[in-house]
Amino acid sequence: MAHDDHDKGLLHDLLTLAERKRERRSVLRWAAGTSVIALVGCGTETSDGGESGECSEIPEETQGPYPGDGSNGVNALALSGIVRSDIRSSVGDASGVAEGVVLTVTLTIVDAGGDCEPLTGRAVYIWHCDRAGDYSLYTGDAAGENYLRGVQQTDGEGRVTFTTIFPACYSGRWPHIHFEVYSSLDEATSSESDHATSQLALPEDVCAEVYAVDGYEQSVDNLSQISLESDNVFSDGVSLQMATVSGDVESGYTATLIVAVEV
Known about the structure:
Blueprint: H1 10-20, E1 102-111, E2 123-127, E3 149-153, E4 159-165, E5 176-182, E6 196-201, H2 204-210, H3 217-224, E7 244-248, E8 252-261
Parallel strand pairs: 1-8
Antiparallel strand pairs: 1-4, 2-3, 2-5, 5-6, 7-8
């Protein structure tokens, strides 16, 4: 099972702690079409008195040791076929397919510095571990694969949608998905040009449902030994990063998150 060594590494923790502790502005209120006004990160209306049209920027988080963006060895962003919506299979010379409960992830990228307008034409790169806790390109049986990594360009409503699998819970980390936001597809070539880096958290009740499914056995014990309060990425607050998740293990789940970034 894979382990995010950075999560126990003092250097990474110290470097990112200041970023994660920065003052957050008022909560995002943004309406898309006929949908209700939403809170950044959890999709529910806030009652904290924040003014409409003001956003809270998504916390900047560590990339971890397995980003595949050129900052730590391999660069999946250079792979032909990496721009795709279904990231369950590998591309290029690799042929593996990640098995697990289907998860559809939709991120809406909005302007944190102004009126929360959707940001169109941005590129979003996401990656996460498989159901065994391994990261493609780096660890375990997934080292020779490049699945569970992909890039999409935001549409006219600032949205990107990926079809993937529900990630495992591995030792020392709360279940999560990494992502980076780039100004455009042309810029999404390496971490040197990324605009924002953060992580999406998954709700405990949904994780418990998924981890009762065959193939996720190791996640049951790992989830019982971690909490949002003890996780060293989410322990300082997770409201802007907790996805809203619906669905079931048979038909799959849908996770949504509004991500406000400075432009």
